[in-house]
């Protein structure tokens, strides 16, 4: 078995290109076919980011309009913060997806290994982002379960 860490990036591009085989024409064609779809998803994602940012602005300033204040203002500010959180979280994978789209377009046009490396780096970054995001979400679920369990036991003990 090898001593190398499978999760560690190669030390240099020469090392990676000397150990990898040739890229087939089919691989190049598939990357070229994926490029327009990736670009479409990136453009659509940026449109959603703009709409989300406008929603945050509208939700944040609605409580200050005449006749809207009161108890609804806290709910609107809370909704603005939640939407802002989603906008910020959506930006990072969208940026990585844009890098993948640029790399696949570049590789299709030039056939240079730099475009292919850009695609591979983007896929790695996207997987890393979603891996960390999944760990954070599962941790929040676990913490919520523990808090709910403690509250349930405390209420059950108080009722007896």
Q: What can you see in these coordinates?
A:
This protein is mainly alpha-helical and 160 residues long. It has a domain at 23-129. It is 81% helix and 0% strand. It has four helices and no strands. It has helices spanning 13-19, 25-61, 72-110, 113-159. Helix 2 runs antiparallel to helix 3 (72-110) and helix 3 (72-110) runs antiparallel to helix 4. The longest helix has 47 residues, at 113-159. It is flat.
Describe what is shown at a glance.
The protein has 160 residues and is mainly α.
Largest sheet: none
Return Rg in Å.
Answer: 24 Å
- Supply the helix-strand structural class: mainly alpha
Instruction: Give the overall shape.
Output: flat
Unreliable stretches:
15-19
How many individual helices?
A: 4
Helix-strand string: HHHH
| SS elements, strand count | 0
Strand content: under 5%
- In helices, the fraction of residues equals over 70%
Round the mean pLDDT to the nearest integer and report it. Answer: 83
Distance between the termini: 60 Å
Strand-helix topology:
Layout lengths: L12 H7 L5 H37 L10 H39 L2 H47 L1
């Amino acid at each position: 078995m090898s001593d190398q860490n499978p999760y560690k990036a190669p030390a240099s591009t020469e090392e990676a290109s000397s150990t990898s085989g040739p890229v087939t024409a089919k691989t190049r064609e598939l990357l070229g076919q994926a490029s327009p779809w990736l670009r479409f998803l990136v453009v659509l994602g940026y449109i959603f980011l703009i709409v989300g940012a406008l929603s945050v602005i509208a939700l944040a300033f609605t409580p200050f309009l005449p006749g809207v204040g009161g108890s609804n203002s806290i709910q609107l500010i809370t909704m603005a913060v939640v939407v802002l959180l989603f906008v910020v979280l959506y930006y990072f994978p969208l940026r990585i997806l844009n890098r993948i789209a640029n790399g696949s377009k570049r590789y299709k046009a030039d056939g240079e290994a730099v475009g292919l490396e850009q695609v591979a780096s983007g896929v790695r970054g996207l997987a890393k982002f979603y891996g960390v995001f999944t760990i954070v979400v599962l941790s929040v679920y676990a913490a919520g379960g523990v808090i709910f369990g403690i509250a349930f036991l405390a209420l059950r003990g108080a009722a007896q």
